[in-house]
Each structure stands twice: as structure tokens, then as C-alpha cells.
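Late entry, evening session. Most of the bench is empty. Finally got around to the prediction I had been postponing all week. Sequence below, unchanged from the version circulated by S.P.
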Amino acid sequence: MREISSSQDLVDSLTNAGDKLVVVDLFPPGCCGCKALHPKKYQLAEMNPDVQFVQVKYEEHKSMCYSFGVHVLPFFRFYRGSQGRVCSFSCTNATIKKFRDALAKHGPDRCSLGPTKGLEEKELVALAANKELNFTYTPKPVPVEKEAATPNLNPSLPSFRLILSKAFRRE
């Protein structure tokens, strides 16, 4: 398991993982339940060498956890290639079956086609909006749909589309 050092490190890890399944473990090291779960997580990591496991220490990265809307710990997020986040959940030692089921469902034998997605747009925007983090992100421009070319035979008259939009406008 690799420890994440910053928001940029997390984004880079997800982007560079390619088509691998990445398990992000958000946890507070002092939590008794997290300590009890720790050996089982390492065992699952050893049993799944094709899965990349990364850890985010809550105390060191509270702002990042808040940006992701994580309020229950330990919390896990599974990411895969072009699909981005495929699932997320909280899990304890008593509910480790949830973790095993998610690994089986999204395991290495499945693949996705297309470029790596990493974090979703709204997650990247949330990280960039958090002033406590050293992370910048410029949202992708939203393509503007071009209106279908409807010829206006008489330029001095308004187009049919404009007349319709005014006729159905609610006031």
C-alpha cells in the first residue's frame, strides 16, 4: 500500500494507473476499528497484486476528505480506468465482506476501454475550490451545441426559431 502525500499525488496516482483497479483507503490511523481492519486490508492487497492500493491519512488530509464529502471512516473508493469511480463505501472489520465483494466485482479480470478517467469532474472542481489544498484545476470547456442552420430567407424578419421561443416563453 502506498501512502498519498497530497491532492495532486492522488490525482496523479489515479490518472497514471491506466486500466488497473485502484482502491483508495481513507482512514484515521488512531481509530481502533481501522487498526483492527488493517491486517485484513494488507492480506487482501497481497492476494490481489494487480490492484493498486493507496492510503489517505485523514488527520493529514482533512481538507481533501471534506472536499470528497467523506464523513464516515474508514472509507473506501474504488476507481478503474476510463470508468472513474466504480463504488465507494464505509467498511469495518465486521463488514469486511463488503470489501471482498467489491474486489471480486471490480477485480483485475475486468477491463475498461478508453483513456483513464481518474477523478470525476465534480471531484476535481471540489478539490480546486478548497483553498486549504495546493491543487489547481481548470474545468474542461463545455462544448456549445451549434444550432442547426435554418436559413432566414428575409434577413429583415426574425427567424422562425426566435418567434417560437418568444411564443412559448413563460412570463
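Two things to note before I forget:
Residues 159-168 have pLDDT under 50 and may be disordered.
The domain at 2-129 is CATH 3.40.30.10 (Glutaredoxin).
Will write this up properly tomorrow.
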